């Protein structure tokens, strides 16, 4: 149980995490930890992945939620619990609450991906949508807590929740005790607090690196004294927290060595890479650790790195968009804007060049009205698929040599 008169560091110890591990037992999945040979080659380091996206609710969050539920009194469980969550904590709490017969109310931001709302309801949670951010949802949940006499289970700023999350590191170090470092996503800080507590207690020399989305550098700001803006539409909505925990920031300040920031293109590329190479679906927050390693190869070169893939709940439409955008960045998909004369055979002549270069046409768009060309001209945009960027570049060069005005439409 939480020790009310203890400092933050005393409230979360290796013994607390070991007790949590024994307590939650087989009610959560002991997920595999595997070396990725291909990612290791790409990164220039030894990459070990902890597949927490294979939990029943597809995220590590159920470890902390279950530990908190099991430490509650029977009276508190009977009244029910409430939480504010962007999704994964809500699913873990709802799933284990239903399993234990505990009523669960979840307040989510209105911006939460539909897949997380549906999955939370599917495992037994009563979902209330309120606010446009986690912070607004959190405030409303605390209001309902008082009105309904419920017990609030914080998604990260709670020693019992963090202790449950720390069991991820316990298993990682049991499987691979000689890791040089762990690279862990940070939102509110619960996962990193638990994992750093375990890692530093077992091996004080292990390097603990936190990762935040560049759009939400909240913990980085707090610990570095920086004043970077916080907010925006990030792929990593699971770690999009404007105000990190008070408890967790004290733990992280003491037990974490550094925090890195990753941009949206890196997050998108890593989600796509994990699906292409490891054949595993990971949400933006879950991919943040690997994204940081790949964006800072010189920092991690030659090291043995443990990476928790902490969640796999990503909306299928969003995943499709991420994959297509990644193909476009690689040059395997392209959109070419071509000025043509509005006359018979004009499109046929262009298409013959695509055939010559063995570039596959996916879509063709004609624009006659909204263009600065003369009335007898038109703009054609052709989406196409190639082996690589060089193949598309060769096509463009041939078209220009033939006399066409052609430009590649770049991603924003």
UniProtKB/TrEMBL annotation:
<protein>
    <submittedName>
        <fullName>Threonine ammonia-lyase</fullName>
        <ecNumber>4.3.1.19</ecNumber>
    </submittedName>
</protein>
<dbReference type="InterPro" id="IPR005789">
    <property type="entry name" value="Thr_deHydtase_catblc"/>
</dbReference>
<dbReference type="Pfam" id="PF01842">
    <property type="entry name" value="ACT"/>
</dbReference>
<keyword id="KW-0456">Lyase</keyword>
<dbReference type="GO" id="GO:0004794">
    <property type="term" value="F:threonine deaminase activity"/>
</dbReference>
<dbReference type="InterPro" id="IPR044561">
    <property type="entry name" value="ACT_ThrD-II-like"/>
</dbReference>
<dbReference type="InterPro" id="IPR036052">
    <property type="entry name" value="TrpB-like_PALP_sf"/>
</dbReference>
<keyword id="KW-0663">Pyridoxal phosphate</keyword>
<comment type="similarity">
    <text>Belongs to the serine/threonine dehydratase family.</text>
</comment>
<feature type="domain" description="ACT">
    <location>
        <begin position="335"/>
        <end position="412"/>
    </location>
</feature>
<dbReference type="Pfam" id="PF00291">
    <property type="entry name" value="PALP"/>
</dbReference>
<dbReference type="InterPro" id="IPR002912">
    <property type="entry name" value="ACT_dom"/>
</dbReference>
<dbReference type="InterPro" id="IPR001926">
    <property type="entry name" value="TrpB-like_PALP"/>
</dbReference>
<dbReference type="InterPro" id="IPR050147">
    <property type="entry name" value="Ser/Thr_Dehydratase"/>
</dbReference>
